[in-house]
Amino acid sequence: MSQSFPVLLADSDATLALGRELGQAAQAGDVIALVGDLGAGKTTLTQGIVDGLDYQQEVTSPTFSLVQQYLGGRLEVFHFDFYRVEGEHELLDLGWDDYLDRQGLVIVEWPTLHPNLLPKNTRWLKLSHREEGRLVEEGLTR
Ligand SMILES: Nc1ncnc2c1ncn2[C@@H]1O[C@H](COP(=O)(O)OP(=O)(O)OP(=O)(O)O)[C@@H](O)[C@H]1O
Ligand SMILES: [Mg+2]
User: Would you state the pLDDT for residue 126?
Assistant: First the structure.
């Protein structure tokens, strides 16, 4: 992948641009876990990823529906938010394993709330607030 981390993103346009690169590079079956506090830019980055897969849709935080799907692009995208998920069982009942098997791209906000659900091939990205914007680091940094 061409993106190199850590990277400092000065504004939301930079977050979108990084997302587009990630979307263009995404492969069937990829899983991206987006770690970061409230307002860190997880949904903005997801919007860029979805744009990078040539969807025109607006991405909103899936806080109230647990998963948003984007279908018909180069890869199907399943965007989860674990923030309001009570327990792993809720996701398993929703068909979590089937989503992983669908050879699309799974993106998860708040993955550390149910880390055991994330498969080994998960790409972990951590966003954090900086005075200059947002810092993005790669790897499981808790
Ligand atoms: N690099 C950046 N620099 C400054 N602001 C940014 C940057 N990237 C995104 N933002 C802004 O931060 C705000 C919050 O972004 P976003 O909704 O993507 O966060 P989030 O991590 O999804 O939050 P939540 O945890 O509530 O879901 C938005 O107003 C967005 O435009
Ligand atoms: Mg969000």
Answer: 98
Counted domains in the chain: 1
| Average pLDDT along the chain, 142 residues, taken 10 residues at a time | 85 98 98 97 98 95 83 96 92 97 97 97 98 95 50
Nearest ligand, measured from the Cα of 125: 1
Residue 34 alpha carbon, nearest atom of ligand 1: 21
Q: To test the ligand 1 pocket, which listed residue (5, 7, 12, 61) has its Cβ within 8 A of the most ligand atoms?
A: 12
Structure tokens at 2: 């061409």
The pTM of the full predicted model, rounded to 2 decimals, is: 0.96
Ligand closest to the CA atom of residue 38: 1
CATH of the domain at 20: 3.40.50.300
d(CA 133, CA 14): 9
Angstrom distance (rounded) from CA 130 to CA 132: 5
Within a domain: residue 1? no
Closest CA to 46 of 133, 103, 110: 110
**108 is a domain residue:** yes
